[in-house]
Design goal:
Elements: E1 2-6, E2 15-19, E3 30-38, H1 47-50, E4 66-74, E5 86-90, E6 102-105, E7 110-112, H2 119-122, H3 126-139, E8 147-150, H4 158-167, E9 171-176, H5 181-187, E10 191-194, E11 207-212, H6 216-222, E12 226-234, H7 251-262, E13 270-275, H8 279-284, E14 295-299
Parallel strand pairs: 8-9, 8-11, 9-10, 11-12, 13-14
Antiparallel strand pairs: 1-2, 3-4, 3-6, 3-14, 4-5, 5-7
Length: 302
């Protein structure tokens, strides 16, 4: 199969083309023929990309762990799916990912693709939507009427955090750049703050929940924004291990997210789409700014 692997050279492209053996699903696994994969450029520096689970160096990893595609094969003891079914979801961070014609995943990590979305658009959803869901609904357990501050509200996770918080009856305060203030307001933020023009703590009152997608100084300043008993989570600042978390695959949550998308209660945004051969540009940042909001996607097959 055609795939793109992380380059071992510090010079040249971030990814290089490769012909790899097509994976086969073991017992309890599902083989996916990938149609599209979401791009998270920072993934190339993550430890699962550069190290195996035992800590030894990992070379030639295939990135891209959120995807939309078609079930191409079922391992033994897999039920609930059939060959030819359109699905979307995630696969293990340490496994070869979806910037390839095929990848292998677990049944509990995928769900039927939202019927209203193309494969390209569906590939923008899993990481962002599940991260927002798990941070807000599982970890901070937001309640109706609470004040929720979302940092990086126009990012690939933030857009879902704003929408979910609104859907669950929260009063959403969002920080974003000036060019994205209108967008996050349309998604449901009751208050929007241009983080480049002012300090958020001077523009709003204390909150019940902070969902942090920035880290560093922004996170440090956010602690003082919490009411007594307030909760905070961060998806980027691992200095704070008690509040830092990494998204996990979850079939039930993917199903619920799909229902919201198909019902028009939640939106996702598709950015530039690139063919497999140009995936390196998407990961290396060598793409001209298009002014189009949304997550970059690599289209594998159509």
């Amino acid at each position: 199969m055609r795939a793109m692997q992380v380059s071992q050279s510090t010079q040249g492209p971030a990814l290089v083309a490769a012909e790899l053996p097509q994976p086969q699903p073991a017992a309890g696994e599902v083989l996916i023929r990938v149609r599209a994969a979401g791009v998270t450029p920072t993934e190339l520096g993550w430890s699962p990309t550069t190290q195996a689970k035992d800590g030894t160096p990992r070379k030639g990893a295939v990135p891209g762990h959120e995807f939309s595609g078609v079930v191409a094969g079922l391992g033994q003891n897999v039920s609930g799916f059939e060959v030819g079914q359109e699905v979307y979801g995630l696969n293990d961070w340490f496994a070869d990912g979806a910037i390839a014609e095929f990848c292998v995943t677990q049944p509990g990590s995928i769900a039927s693709k939202p019927a209203s979305l193309t494969h390209e658009k569906a590939a923008t959803v899993p990481i962002g939507a599940l991260t927002a869901w798990q941070g807000l609904l599982e970890r901070t357990k937001i309640q109706r009427g609470e004040r929720v501050l979302v940092h990086a509200a126009a990012g690939s996770v933030g857009i879902f955090a704003v929408q979910l918080a609104r859907l669950y009856g929260a009063h959403v305060i969002a920080t974003a750049s000036s060019r994205n203030l209108k967008l996050v307001a349309e998604l449901g933020a009751a208050e929007v703050i241009d983080y480049q023009a002012s300090r958020f703590e001077e523009q709003t009152q204390k909150v019940d929940v902070v969902f942090d997608g920035v880290g560093g100084e922004t996170l440090d300043r956010s602690w003082g924004m919490l009411k007594p008993g307030g909760r905070l989570v961060t998806i980027v600042d691992y200095r704070n291990k008690d509040v830092f978390f990494i998204v996990e695959p979850n079939q039930k949550q993917l199903i619920e997210v799909g229902k919201l998308l198909d019902a028009g209660k939640m939106k996702t945004f598709l950015g530039p789409v690139f063919p497999l051969a140009e995936a390196s540009s998407a990961y290396s940042g060598g793409i001209a700014k298009t002014g189009k909001h949304g997550k970059m996607v690599v289209a594998i097959t159509r």
